[in-house]
Each structure stands twice: as C-alpha cells, then as structure tokens.
C-alpha cells in the first residue's frame, strides 16, 4: 500500500503579510499559528502590568513599551506578538513603521490555556535564540510571575514571584511592582 506524504508548508513573512482575515497570527519556525483573543482576566493583568512598566520606563527615560498586537519581526520565519515588550532607548532604531525589527530587551507573555505550550516552550526557545535579555512568564492561575534571564544563549530562572511579593527586574534596575494589585480581581465568577 502506498502512503501519501503531505508536506507541511513553511510560511514566510511575506505569506504572513498576505493573510486577509480578522484573526491574529504568529509565525514560529515557519509555522503559522492562530492566536485567539485574550480573555478579560488576561487583559486585566496585561493592562495593569503594562501601566506599571510604562510608568517606570517613561519616568526614567529608558525607552518604549508596546503591547499586543504588535509584530516583532525576528527573521523571515519568526514573527511574534508578545503581550508586552520593552525596547531600550539605545535600541529604539529597531522600531519600524510597520513592526519591531529585532528582539525586544524584555518580553512578557501571559499564559492562557491555548498559549501555554507556545509561551513556555516555543517562544522561550525563540526569545533566547534571538537574544531577548529578560523574559517574564505570567501565570494567572497561580498568580505568579517567573522571571528568566539570558545567560549563554539560554534562559535561567532568576526568581518566581507570587501575588504577595514585590517583583524586581534584574535588567530594569530599581523597577519594583507590587503583584497584589496586578492579580486582584482576576478570579471573578464565571
């Protein structure tokens, strides 16, 4: 019996740009991945975290903060949309007219059921490979944030912060975020 081999298409940035629907996508290792809209709890956390980060970055004139959806072009087969990203003032030249053209200094991903594998495995490897200095993984169910720092092209867990902790960034010196207010109200009845 003959077997039919179906070759999976590798997508490029040009293919990604030619998608003509209302869905959100990311391109990881040439694989086109649909990204569902975030749930309200995710958006609450994202908004609060981004507000604190943006306030600190702006007050200290450190660079710029963006949030999804915002394309980060890493190469022709890798285009991602971190939930929140920071680009230092020394690297603002990577901000293009249509996208960010290179890795941010800090990427923040908020885990959801549909994004867990992508954020914890695929994007973590990708961000390390392209040199994102610090990576935060926010886990709403556990009300925690894991901070990873890049050393020798690999992420190492710097610290896990829980709801009652004050998050301190190794890369952004003097940044302190009380997580109690970030995680309050996320467990609203369904």
From TrEMBL:
<dbReference type="InterPro" id="IPR008538">
    <property type="entry name" value="Uma2"/>
</dbReference>
<dbReference type="Pfam" id="PF05685">
    <property type="entry name" value="Uma2"/>
</dbReference>
<feature type="domain" description="Putative restriction endonuclease">
    <location>
        <begin position="14"/>
        <end position="175"/>
    </location>
</feature>
<dbReference type="InterPro" id="IPR012296">
    <property type="entry name" value="Nuclease_put_TT1808"/>
</dbReference>
<protein>
    <recommendedName>
        <fullName>Putative restriction endonuclease domain-containing protein</fullName>
    </recommendedName>
</protein>
<dbReference type="InterPro" id="IPR011335">
    <property type="entry name" value="Restrct_endonuc-II-like"/>
</dbReference>
């Amino acid at each position: 019996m003959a077997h039919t081999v179906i070759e999976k298409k590798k997508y490029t940035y040009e293919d990604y740009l030619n998608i003509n629907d209302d869905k959100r996508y990311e391109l990881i290792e040439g694989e086109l991945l649909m990204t569902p809209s975030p749930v309200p709890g995710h958006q609450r956390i994202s908004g609060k975290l981004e507000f604190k980060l943006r306030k600190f970055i702006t007050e200290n004139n450190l660079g710029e903060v963006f949030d999804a959806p915002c394309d980060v072009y890493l190469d022709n087969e890798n285009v991602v949309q971190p939930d929140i990203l920071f680009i230092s003032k020394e690297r603002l030249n990577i901000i293009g007219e249509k996208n960010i053209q290179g890795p941010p200094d800090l990427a923040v991903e908020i885990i959801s059921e549909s994004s867990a594998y992508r954020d914890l495995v695929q994007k973590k490897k990708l961000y390390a490979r392209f040199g994102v200095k610090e990576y935060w993984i926010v886990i709403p169910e556990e009300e925690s944030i894991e901070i990873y720092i890049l050393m020798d092209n690999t992420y190492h867990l710097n610290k896990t912060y829980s709801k009652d902790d004050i998050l301190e960034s190794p890369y952004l010196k003097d940044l302190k975020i009380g997580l109690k207010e970030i995680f309050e109200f996320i467990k609203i009845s369904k």
